[in-house]
Amino acid sequence: MGKNIEGEAFITDHIFSYILHGKHDVWVGGKKYSFQEGDFRFFKRNQLSKYVKNTDNGGFKSIAVHIDQTTLKEMSKQYSLFAEETYSEGEAFFIQPDHKLKGFVESLTHYLQEPKVDERIVLLKTQELVFLLLENNPSFKNILFDFAEPGKIDLEAFMNSHYRYNVSIERFAFLTGRSLSGFKRDFEKLFNTSPSRWLIRNRLEDAKYQIENKKEKPSEVYLELGFEDLSHFSYAYKKAFGYAPNKRI
């Protein structure tokens, strides 16, 4: 039995992906998505995500294409492709594939064993994918060709649903549509404490609840709650509550 692969990531580019083998749970925007072999899926850019890749029964394997902003801006200029409205129906979703998308994925499998693929081929395949997605669902135009950066959003709602992510204060500022100084100013006005102290306190309170009420093990919760290693988590937990996390299980 393989060990599941867990982690978190900031999705910088739009991502199209197809699962060749295995199962994949992803949390984006406070919502859990469960994918399995044969699923076509799409992730919007500028999102925080957590994931678990199931490695049982042969492991996990997928094909992913990152659709970068430079390519999309060049296509927008060359083919007059522009977003007509803001797409707000989800940060990640399944794609109902047609025969062309299936053929596209099959064409990519020939490159899986290559140590390095010619950048010109990568560009052409990315452009091909964009046109296939637009043909599959015209609403993709409002996702792919929306070049706006995150606007100023509700800080309290965002932080309460994203405090478990182990990312920098600068990243939180960017995702809430603020400069670093503006983020710190708004944060302290709202929460009456600094972002770093608030994040640690909320993560530890969450950990305490999971350990004492849901009987989770410290080794099962520390990564989920944004701590980099178990020893740091145990030290912070004992400092906050006066006893080690494994003392109340």
Task: Give me the secondary-structure topology.
Blueprint: E1 5-11, E2 14-21, E3 23-28, E4 31-36, E5 40-43, E6 47-54, E7 61-67, H1 69-79, E8 92-94, H2 99-108, H3 119-136, H4 141-144, H5 155-162, H6 169-175, H7 180-191, H8 195-212, H9 218-221, H10 230-241
Strand tally is: 8
Q: How would you sum up the major sheet?
A: 4 strands, antiparallel
**What is the share of helical residues?**
40-55%
Q: What sort of overall outline do the alpha carbons produce when their principal axes are compared?
A: globular
CATH architectural type of the largest domain: Sandwich
Q: Indicate how many domains the architecture comprises.
A: 2
Radius of gyration: 21 Å
SS summary, helix count = 10
Strand order of the largest sheet: 1-6-3-4
Give the class-level CATH name of the largest domain. Mainly Beta
- The proportion of residues in beta strands is 15-25%
Overall mean confidence score, pLDDT: 92
Give the end-to-end Cα distance, rounded to a whole number of Å: 27 Å
- Supply the CATH superfamily name of the largest domain: Regulatory protein AraC
CATH-assigned fold name of the largest domain: Jelly Rolls
Low-confidence stretches: none
Protein name: HTH araC/xylS-type domain-containing protein
Pfam family, one: ExsA_N
GO molecular function: DNA-binding transcription factor activity; sequence-specific DNA binding
InterPro entries: ExsA-like_N, Homeodomain-like_sf, HTH-like, HTH_AraC
